[in-house]
Inverse folding.
């Protein structure tokens, strides 16, 4: 089974979006550099960020996100984000009309079913879980192996929390990665078991 990683860009005070689901300056580092991060040419980062992010992205087999994120992003226009092969959407509602049940998007009810489906699809590749409510639920269930965050130099004060509504203590190991890019600090923590 691949490693399960909870991941997102985050404000210094722990938010992944403001109250209106807007990331504001959280993604400035993704467009403020001079090294293309993907084929689109839209995402451009510093060389330091590229050297850290690109190998990670290349290892992701599946992304897990909640239905809210799926709806807010308009289903990523039918293509899983960041070149990932599959997306698993945690939802209590059926797939939107017209979505191919044999396609790259898989709609499941519950986080345990989502992680199981994602691991089946990913094999030994990384299963990425979007931070927020679903990510927090996966962490609370003890299914996250590591936490990665790209900390942007902004304080939101309120909004959508990185760890969602987690209300219990979860111990992480000391960060085994701390890399300063331009306008971002990349951190990686292993989850203590």
């Amino acid at each position: 089974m691949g490693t399960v990683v909870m991941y997102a860009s985050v404000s210094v005070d722990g938010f992944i979006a403001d109250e209106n689901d807007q990331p504001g300056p959280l993604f400035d580092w993704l467009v403020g550099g001079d090294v293309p991060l993907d084929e689109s040419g839209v995402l451009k980062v510093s060389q330091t960020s590229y050297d850290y992010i690109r190998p990670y992205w290349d290892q992701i087999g599946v992304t897990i996100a909640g239905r809210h994120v799926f709806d807010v992003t308009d289903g990523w226009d039918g293509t899983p984000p960041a070149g990932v092969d599959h997306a698993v959407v945690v939802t209590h509602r059926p797939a939107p009309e017209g979505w191919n049940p044999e396609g790259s998007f898989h709609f499941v009810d519950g986080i345990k079913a989502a992680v199981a489906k994602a691991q089946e699809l990913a094999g030994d590749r990384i299963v990425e879980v979007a931070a927020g409510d679903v990510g927090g639920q996966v962490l609370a269930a003890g299914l996250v192996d590591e936490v990665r965050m790209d900390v942007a130099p902004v304080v939101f004060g309120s909004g959508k929390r990185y760890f969602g509504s987690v209300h219990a203590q979860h111990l992480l190991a000391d960060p085994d990665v701390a890399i300063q890019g331009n306008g971002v600090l990349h951190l990686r923590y292993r989850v203590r078991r």
In short: The CA atoms of residues 178 and 187 lie 5 Å apart. The two ends are 17 Å apart (CA to CA).
